[in-house]
Amino acid sequence: MSKFKLALVQLKAGLDKKENVSRALQFIKRAVSEHQAKVVSLPECFNSPYGTQYFAQYAESIPGPTTDALSAAAKEHQIYLIGGSIPEISEKKLYNTATVFGPDGRLIATHRKVHLFDIDIPGKITFQESAVLSSGDKFCTFDTEFCKIGVAICYDIRFAEMAMCYANAGCSLIVYPGAFNMTTGPKHWTLLQRARAVDNQLYVAGVSPARDEQASYVSYAHSSIVNPWGEVLVEADETEQIIAADIDTSLIEQVRNQIPIMKQRRRDLYTLDSPLMRL
Ligand SMILES: NC(=O)CC(=O)C(=O)O
What region holds the CN hydrolase domain (predicted)? Predict the structure, then answer.
């Protein structure tokens, strides 16, 4: 059983990459000083605007200037830092990639968005990440002294199977840096976080960029933290801010004992074992 403070930084990312990174660092400092956070997450594409036209222009290799800054921040504040995501370039391919740094500043995990955001809702939104990005082909979990944590990015949240694999691997919390939009966000963003939390009886956090009405892609924002009952513990509005909540792993045990779906699974009828999760 353990308890720790998780803080999410709902950052407003603009066109100036250096400015985005430097503001992210200021917010990380505040998350620690004002909320005593032990785990901090930034949003999807925190060092660039979100959009297929931006990925190549803002892409960096990992390690690179942005992730070097994250590593130093994690070490300075002695926290686990989930670096939202950044456009990554590797061997001429572009990825939407999250990095995770431990309290010693070491890169302990990376996640390349596995499910690319390709949708077409006529008259509302058409988006095709796969026109520019390549998808990742690995899952991402990391261990802390508090619990095991899973990371996935935005559209990945729509795939219940992935969250189940993370739960099956022992995660107590799944963090989704994500930038839902003004069409799908109001309908699905919080609902999906609550659904993944209830399906798996664990904590779920969604961390979004703040809304910028002038941007070509307008983020819904509303970062939130949901408990294993599927209750929203804290939810941001659309503005730039930090939200934080206690993650208490004893509640997971309690819920799983009271509603024991984890033990009642009919594994003779279906499988949850991904080869990626044989850790
Ligand atoms: N931006 C995304 O990756 C996902 C999204 O906005 C949605 O699923 O809706």
Answer: 4-249
What tens digit of pLDDT does each residue of 230-259 get? 999 999 999 999 999 999 999 999 999 999
User: Could you tell me which residues come within 8 angstroms of residue 53 by beta carbon, excluding any fewer than 6 positions away?
Assistant: 216
Separation of 260 CA from ligand 1 center, angstroms?
Answer: 31
Domain-located, residue 276: no
Reported as a single tens digit per residue, the pLDDT across 80-101 is 999 999 999 999 999 999 999 9
By residue range, what is the domain housing residue 104? 3-265
Of 44, 60, 88, 238, which one is the catalytic site residue?
A: 44
What's the structural domain count of the chain?
A: 1
Asked if residues 87 and 65 have their Cβ atoms less than 8 Å apart, the reply is no
Q: Which atom of ligand 1 is nearest to the CA of 181?
A: 6
CATH of the domain at 225: 3.60.110.10
pTM here is 0.97
- Gyration radius (Cα) of the chain, Å: 17
